[in-house]
Amino acid sequence: MTIKEPDAGPPGAEPEPGPGPGDATGAAGTSAAAVAAAGGEIGRASLWHDAWRDLRRRWVFWGSAAILAVVAVMAALPRLFTAKDVNQGCDPNAAKLGPSGDHWFGTDLAGCDYYAHVVHGARPTLLIGVAVTLFALAIALVFGLLAGYYGGLLDALIARLTDVFFGLPFVLGATVILVAFPSHGVWAMTLVLVLLGWTTMIRIMRGQVIAVRDADYVQAARLLGASDGRIMARHILPNAIAPVIVVATLNVGNVIVGEATLDFLGVGLQYPEVSWGLQLNQAKDSFIDHPHLLVFPAVFLSATVLSFLMLGDAARDALDPKLR
Amino acid sequence: MLTDVKDDPAPPPPLLRVDDLHVRFRVRGRDVHAVNGLSYTLDEGETLAILGESGSGKSVAAQAVMGILDVPPARVERGSVRLRGEELLGLPERRRRAYRGDRISMIFQDALTALNPVLTVGDQLREMYRVHRGLGRREARDRAVELMERVRIPSAAKRLGDYPHQFSGGMRQRIMIAMALALEPDVLIADEPTTALDVTVQAQIMRLLAGLQDELRMGMVLITHDLGVVAGVADRIVVMYAGTVAEQAPARELYARPAHPYTRGLLASVPRLDRRGAPLVPIKGTPPNPAVLPPGCPFQPRCPRAEAVCAAEKPPLTAVAPGHDAACHFAEEVHRARPE
Amino acid sequence: MWRYVLRRLLQAVPVFIGTTLLIYVMVFALPGDPIQALAGDKPVPDNVLQTLRDRYNLNDPLLVQYAKYMWGLAQGDLGENYTGQSVSEMLSGRWSVTAQLAVTAWIFELAIGIALGTWAGLRRGRLADTLVLGGTTLVIAVPVFVLGYTAQLLFGLHWRIFPTAGTDEGWPMSYLLPGIVLGSLGLSYVARLTRTSLSENLRADYVRTANAKGLSRARVVGRHALRNSLIPVVTYLGVDFGNLMGGAVVTEGIFNLPGIGQQVFQSIQLKEGPVVVGAVTVLVLIFLLVNLVVDLLYGVLDPRIRYE
């Protein structure tokens, strides 16, 4: 339903420094010092290294990764899972049947095999989720970096533009835009969702860049005569990117839910496309008598989204040294 | 009364007595021994300075005495903290809480983060009277104004409704002090009270603290890493290293004739007016990691006069002169040697 | 404080203009005939299309079109549908339903969300924390409409605890189940935000000070830590209102509540594009207004912002 990160400030507001946890002195200071000494050097390489070591030990990480791997293979090579095409071998006389040996997930309204439907529904769903996030991430990285690094007019311009797009809630905004383009496929849909979905990540990226921009090692690189491009690519980007990656992972899940909601409302993908959201849309009038029509796509959709969310949460915990 | 004293030859218990205090942290499955057998006493009206580098466990020990450590990860393993003879460790939390802020109170290093940013200073001062004394709104307010005047905050009544971030660093620290002294405690623990301040403001704050201490006859434990802060105000000094006492002595005695190589190193590493032109000698190496303390004397890896025995045996705290103890196998020799 | 209010108001102006212009450009100014597009493949008589083109001033330059459209909006004119019925009239009786639903959802997510978040935040890393984290992640992962249908099936049809649909039983009974469904997503975010924020604040220096003052645990948590922790929660409420409005379209559709959202829901099915655009634009404007109010509230809650 949402891709707005709750931590984002109010529209138009700069990120305010909250009352930080007090670990400068005393108990926490001692333990932090001990951790630093025990965990080796605190640096970029070791941040990712530590995060990976931390992730490796979590069952949540492996569970989510396994589910996503299955769904990804399903999206890439649906033939591995089912020999049938989407609307192959439909029998209108055998419509809305419950699960059986012939039809594992039963049949749909037209008597087609529902399992084949669900398998083929993985591709558009996953594609939109990942593509929207990747494009939005690219926008956020490039423009967040430039805005945060150069500041001034460019920054002001990008910030105002972000505010304007932030003023459009995801589902409402997408509804009003998509209604004006009734015939849209997966890529048009992706474009619209990117348009509404880049604001959160760019705000986080910009905040990170500003926090890193004046660090001593960046000053040092500047004094040594490194070009702006080199400073941004070598010093700022790697140190600012971690929280954005976490949010991007969570964002994939949120986009998938949002896309499914739009399909459900009838402004998203249209028949004859196949997606989990559309299947849920078609199930809505008959799910009371035939709950399997709702249950199977819902379980696949939710498991996929849940995996992205848990992966993002695990990555956040692993990348946040404060929580260790 | 007089006969009582004759009947009972034991002297009255000291104001505050800390004995063999051990505090341990559990961090990511590892044990970190932050405080390892700290002992000291504090008398009425006395100022005891606890001197140590960061990570020496001095702040943790202070919080253990106050009873405000986060449990877990911290845990007071053993030891005793007695206020006028009454054991505080193991006291029910309700009783302990009643003492905090009332009989023992504490001021912290950075008043900007130590004061609540979203409550007015008036709110935070009044809270002391309302919670501990059950005073009404109006009366608590009047007392808060008196208190702010006492720590010399100009136009106190007007500033009661201001928030901490609207004050300067020095003024904020005064509010912190006012809050700690609101109920005229017996013991004040000041944890690096001037570290976050400009040098000129530092002196003002120390003077204010010393003045108020005289006025209220409090005992004060002054925790610092700064020899300069200690010099003017401390009656006695405890030097802490790796969570334990390295040396303790009256202030003058410690400066004149240190009996521990660490103390000696500390004194040689800061510029002193009475020894102009003498070279400054830093202490080699870094403080030990409290997660992996070396066996034997904790200072031994950095000690210029370490011998085989130092790596094997932990030196006990031994007296080199009345009221002057040091935990070094060669305390006597170090003490005898003229400071260079 | 007044400077803060003034600055926020000034900052809101370009956002209002920008966001409405964005909607307008996306709907009416892109290549192709927007009026035909809004009807989709639904047959619309030529004379009606022509009337609508005139109605939306599509022959004027873009900015003039936009200005005229905004002027209409400001006077409560949201456009007309294909049969010439005014959109604002279609919506007129529906406001109170949506308002009641939104308030129900808001109360639910605030009360339960903050309570759950506090519970988890105080027990970070323990069972309570894991339960709250797991439960809220699950709720975020399940689309609102799946949640809605499931709740309707179980609580309405199966166990008959709540009415299945409609507003016959009035507030609160008819609004409870849809309100809980609508508020569940916001509840999850509120709980997670409160949890993280509280457990961070519990480690803050000023909480240590409050402990050193000898205050009771309840007072340290309630008056000192929680108060600070709720500041980000309040900011989130503004963003959340956008989700609530979007969710209202789904929820009112499912539970058949005759509100603004249901009108949008039905108009999408009937391919009444102009009605969708008009109604959603109003919802977006309300979202922006609520955000502005939340922004100002933020200044009241956090003195550091006010005086910057």
Observed structural traits:
heterotrimer; A: 324 residues; mainly alpha; elongated; disordered N terminus; C: 308 residues
Ends distance of chain B: 51 Å
Classify the secondary structure makeup of chain A into a structural class: mainly alpha
Mean pLDDT of chain A: 78
Total number of helical segments of chain A? 12
Helices and strands of chain A, in order, run as HHHHHHHHHHHH
Q: Give the termini separation of chain A.
A: 31 Å
Helix content of chain A: 55-70%
Segments of chain A where pLDDT lies below 50 for 5+ residues? Answer: 1-42
What structural category do the secondary elements of chain B indicate?
A: alpha/beta
- Strand portion of chain B: 15-25%
Q: What's the total number of strands of chain B?
A: 12
How is this fold's topology laid out?
The complex is a heterotrimer of chains A (324), B (340) and C (308).
Chain A: H1 26-39, H2 44-56, H3 59-76, H4 114-150, H5 152-166, H6 170-179, H7 186-197, H8 199-213, H9 216-223, H10 228-265, H11 276-283, H12 292-319
Helix pairs in contact in A: 2-12, 3-4, 3-12, 4-5, 4-7, 4-8, 4-10, 4-12, 5-8, 6-7, 8-10, 9-10, 10-11, 10-12, 11-12
Chain B: H1 2-7, E1 16-27, E2 30-42, E3 47-51, H2 58-66, E4 74-83, E5 86-87, H3 93-99, E6 104-107, H4 111-114, H5 121-133, H6 137-150, H7 156-159, H8 169-181, E7 187-191, H9 199-216, E8 219-224, H10 227-233, E9 236-241, E10 244-250, H11 251-256, H12 261-268, H13 308-312, E11 318-321, E12 324-326, H14 331-336
Chain C: H1 2-28, H2 34-39, H3 46-55, H4 62-74, H5 87-92, H6 95-122, H7 127-141, H8 144-158, H9 173-201, H10 205-212, H11 217-255, H12 260-269, H13 273-301, H14 303-306
3D structure, described in words:
By secondary structure, chain A is mainly alpha-helical. Chain A contains 12 helices and no strands. Chain A is elongated, with a radius of gyration of 23 Å. Mean pLDDT of chain A is 78; it is low at 1-42. By secondary structure, chain B is an alpha/beta fold. Helix content of chain B is 35%, strand content 23%. Chain B is built from 14 helices and 12 strands. In chain B, the strands form 2 sheets. Chain B has an 8-stranded mixed β-sheet with strand order 6-7-8-3-9-10-12-11, sandwiched between helices. Chain B has a 4-stranded antiparallel β-sheet with strand order 2-1-4-5. Helix content of chain C is 78%, strand content 0%. In chain C, helix 6 runs antiparallel to helix 7, helix 8 crosses helix 9 and helix 12 (260-269) runs antiparallel to helix 13. The model of chain C has no long low-confidence stretch (mean pLDDT 84). Classes of the chains: A mainly alpha (324), B alpha/beta (340), C mainly alpha (308). Chains in contact: A-B, A-C, B-C.
